[in-house]
Amino acid sequence: MTKKELPIGVSDFKKIIIDDLYFVDKSMFIKDVVGTGTMVLLYPRPRRFGKTLNLSMLKYFYDCNEDNSQLFDDLEISKEEKIMKKQGKYPVIFITLKDIKAETLELCFEKIYSEISSLYSSHRKLLNESFMSKWDIEYFESILSKKGNYADFTASLKNLSQYLYEHYKINPVILIDEYDTPIHSGYYNGYYKEIVSFMQGFLGGALKDNVYLEKGVLTGILRVAKESIFSDLNNIRVLTILNQESANRFGFTEDEVGILLKESGSILNLSEIKNMYNGYNFGGIDIYNPWSILNSLQEKNFGHYWANSSGNNLIKTMCQEADESVKEDLEILLQGGKIKKYIKDSIIFQELQSDQNAIWNFFLMCGYLRYDDYILNVERGDTNADISIPNKEIFTLFNTTIVPNWFRKTEKTDELINLATLLVDGDFEEFKKEFIQYCQESFSYFDVSGQEPEKFYHAFVLGMITCLRDRYLIKSNRETGYGRSDLMLIPYNLPPHSQARDFPPHLWGGQGGANKGIIFEFKKLNEARGETFEKAFRNGKRQLLEKQYDIEMKGYGIEKITYIIAVFKGKEVMLESF
Prior knowledge:
Elements: H1 13-18, H2 28-34, E1 40-44, H3 51-62, H4 81-84, E2 92-96, H5 105-121, H6 134-144, H7 150-154, H8 156-168, E3 173-177, H9 181-189, H10 192-207, E4 215-220, E5 236-238, H11 254-264, H12 270-277, E6 280-282, E7 285-287, H13 290-299, H14 313-320, H15 324-334, E8 339-343, H16 351-354, H17 358-366, E9 370-377, E10 382-388, H18 392-402, H19 411-424, H20 428-442, H21 445-448, H22 453-464, E11 472-480, E12 483-491, E13 517-524, H23 533-546, H24 551-555, E14 561-569, E15 572-577
Parallel strand pairs: 1-4, 1-5, 2-3, 3-4, 13-14
Antiparallel strand pairs: 6-7, 8-10, 9-10, 11-12, 12-13, 14-15
Helix pairs in contact: 8-10, 9-10, 14-22, 19-20
């Protein structure tokens, strides 16, 4: 038997079948979708567990624009005669939001509008239809050219479904991949409310009371609750990792891994793979991480493939803001223990900072933890379960990346506290020397490689100064002046005349303690443009002053402000202050 190539990074179902790549048959997922009377289905799963591939398979199953029937000939779904009668019978709207990640709201909308424009371009032939009025054509072209306004793009999915119905006289199927990526980005980058408001209209208009909808299927990492996105949808069913239905449609089961090992002729041992990549519990079924399995077979070696496929920035930020109870629980997990927690299948982003228990829901649904021995509490609407780290790969991720050194009761904690103390006590030259030395000795090249190493350093400094929260209000990526400052330390010891309502009243006009503000700017050295450290410092200083990052702090009555510019080139870091 000829060994098939592994589909590393290939999420197009048709390409996998036509190119005869190895395919773990998940085609019965089609029956789960087509065979239910539920109008809208949402499948939250961790990243890289096959969501995009499953939606792609649905697309080719439903699509009436070309004959794709041969793609399913040798798959399990081909035996389902009733289901196969619906193959190739519907127009399909397929859109992915997986790449909608942006530091600003403006850039986020630009990316969303481009994705919608591409979607409309794939249905450009509708412009020639007789049912299209002059207004419809103008609207359609405004989406194509990305010149439409906010309301135009908000209604774009619903309008396109109507156009497709008018053309085919059949209601279309809407498939939305990674619907929640813009929401994650909005939460992390400070435009959460604005992007949620857009998604409410964008998704709600297409999926709620849309008479032109046959069926809607969404995937994502989380079920975002109480955000007015899905709260009014009475025709949606959410199937998370807690549900038994469709539990084995994402990720690999042990039987599937065993067959894959045999047919690929791999030298890797199943027990070692199980220790490294198994451990996920989806609806009571043990599930292996498919991304790591495929990559380990390809590389003929064990590695941290899933862990290294994302920056984990939001996870690290949440850890940095966690209280002592979370730190204690993390210590138990890192020792191989279990913690009992109430978990829900939905995430309320506003609660992530105020409700420390919400962090465990987030970790679990994102694929960093597993659950066992759960008991559903119908009245509370949540689940009492034992939580643990699923496998060796995730344990290593927690131990080396997600949980920074300042969480651990080791000598590193004292080093970080010493760095923070040097920073705020005004000994900048000593702080600079110690900071540079720490970075060179503690960071790996992998930590600071990539296109945006400044984000890694940003997260590190943010964690370093967590010990100062009793003396400073710490703000990260906050809009101030004419831009967004990277990091601000605003002293609680404010002048008596300050009107800073963000602070506890007993700290206003306090005596002693910190009275100097600090603003950080992080920059990557742009060698491609011939930039030197000196030039980078000048550019950073100009940006700080021109965009008035200090306007908020000065508004609190703080006159003493230290500005620190940190420029990075891999592990090489230089600091200047003024």
